[in-house]
Amino acid sequence: MSYKVLSIILITLALTACSRTGLMYDNADWLAYRWAVKLLDADAPQRDDWRERFRQLHVTHRERLLPRVIDILYAMEVQAGEGLSSEGLACLLEDAERVYRAHAHLTVPLAVDLLQDMSGEQLAHLAAELDERNREYAEKYLDTEPAVRHEKRVERYLDRIERWTGDLSDEQVAMVDAAVLTMPETAETWLAYRRQQQRRLLDLLEARADEVELATFLAAWWMDFADRSEALVDRTENMRRASARLALRLDASLTSRQRSQFVKRVAKLRRDLEGVSDFPRHIAAREAIQHCG
């Protein structure tokens, strides 16, 4: 369960690139721990035990995965300064996918331990929490009016992009709007998949599935997004291709000011994360640049 929080934290840092990045990463174990405590309604003995487990997970993450995240940022920084190529972008996305899968692989054992330690009351609490989060997702992404859904999607894209580049021109905004219009809608099929997998998880927990069965299910879900419908697989792949095309078109349209701001944002994020890493970055920088340069 915790890998999702760690991933969300890293994504949030990447979007904001704020001065508190290092501080937030240093406290990622505490943030993930607090999320798990609330989701699973941990009792006092569990809270005492889990705190150290999350601390150890964070130590391992810092040693194994943080350097890889910084490597990607190095390569992104170089590419952003020179201008994106389709090959370079594909390489960055492939590396990011590998790091994401490593996040999931790293945290499955802890998730299994936490989930198998739940009481019947805590299982009911988890089911209620998941239902509530699904309702919130539906309210945010499943507006009944197609025009409203499209407008909100464009707003989300613009917000994420302009945090990196600063304000876009009218022509660039129109480019984003037109691109989003061609992208398949995935929110409804994704929510159906979430509910399906959550129900399967709850069924396994109610049946007191053993460690191997539970770990196999979680790894398949989190690492491979197993058992998705054909519609969701197709729409997700089409979305990725459309997003990559938009990224390349926008990159080609950036002004010198926008490109400079983008590079500075990436560099700031990279330096902040370097500040909480002991890895020899000057070596990793050359390797990352050569790999996706």
Topology:
Elements: H1 2-16, H2 21-26, H3 28-40, H4 44-64, H5 66-82, H6 86-116, H7 120-141, H8 146-165, H9 170-182, H10 187-206, H11 211-224, H12 230-253, H13 256-274, H14 281-292
Characteristic key phrases:
293 residues, mainly alpha, 14 helices, globular
Task: Give a nutshell description of this structure.
The chain has 293 residues and is an all-alpha fold. It has helices at 2-16, 21-26, 28-40, 44-64, 66-82, 86-116, 120-141, 146-165, 170-182, 187-206, 211-224, 230-253, 256-274, 281-292.
- Give the DSSP E fraction (strand runs of 2 or more residues): under 5%
Helix percentage: over 70%
When the domains are counted, the total is 1
Q: Radius of gyration, Cα only, in angstroms?
A: 20 Å
Distance from first to last alpha carbon: 34 Å
Indicate the mean pLDDT. 86
> Helical element count?
14
**DSSP summary, beta strand count:** 0
Q: Structural class given helices, strands, pairing?
A: mainly alpha
| Poorly predicted runs | 1-19
Q: Could you describe the largest sheet, including whether it forms a barrel?
A: none
Name the helix and strand elements from N-terminus to C-terminus, one letter apiece.
HHHHHHHHHHHHHH
Global morphology: globular
